[in-house]
């Protein structure tokens, strides 16, 4: 029965890979973020949350008053890759923490943006500059160049408690700065992926792409967190995660002082379909990738670290059909500095054990051959796709 299940799974993967060959274009995400790279609108491959606890009508009178008081201190954050574009490449949320326009958002909202602007509730637009960031923590301090003093939100002076109100303000579902209500479920949550921050707050507020970077408010109107990502738990319930912030937050003080801390990158990306091969280690030889499972990739940054070192992305050489797997050709990374790598996510974790500028040795499987390749890691923001 196990073999039949594996066979059906491989056939399903075959069909997915055929679709990959026919339909996808080169990946444009920053590196080395794997499958669910949080771009400016947060992970988008999650199912939509039910339309409950969304909008002012869903709030109690007290929470509606809390929202209306906080809303003017929030803004829609738009980023563009070119200066003359009228259409933003990505949309997120931010909020003011000082009257002179200093603000907080999630780092992935501003990552790689050449032109940033803030649209306030009153419809005004202001240019935005990044002051400091920590890519692993997914937190950024930005300066909104407002023409006047702005309303701002106070940061929490104490640690939040499980069960308390978690009121988010964001720009998802095509709405401008609307509330989403939930409860705080857990503190100090460990991320199950290397590219997501750890130590987060877990919420049941129904957040969605566009809410990233927005505030999570307590009953007293203080900010307890910054929206980072969403995912489904093991019971397929939507859960939202926020980076905890408070008035005594040491990292926040560093970022306000201008610290810019990036994560190391190889300059490769993997599509969802390729990364999901990790669930089928027996698929590697059947797909022509060699005997061992490992990290495979199909995006390679031009003149990035991996490209300069001669790594080869996976490419299709035959499509296959329902009964015959497609055949692929490309490198499989099976170890980094001697530590086993079984998936793209594990490769990201291994890379992030090192610092920008360090040289690592990759064990690479090319068909039935094994080669050792040295790669010098670069800052992710410097690896252009």
From TrEMBL:
It holds the Pfam family PDZ_2. GO terms for biological process: proteolysis. It comes from Deinobacterium chartae. This is S1-C subfamily serine protease. Residues 1-30 form the signal peptide. The keyword Hydrolase applies. Residues 31-50 are annotated as: Disordered. Belongs to the peptidase S1C family. One of its GO terms (molecular function) is serine-type endopeptidase activity. Residues 285-368 form the PDZ domain. Keywords: Hydrolase, Protease, Signal.
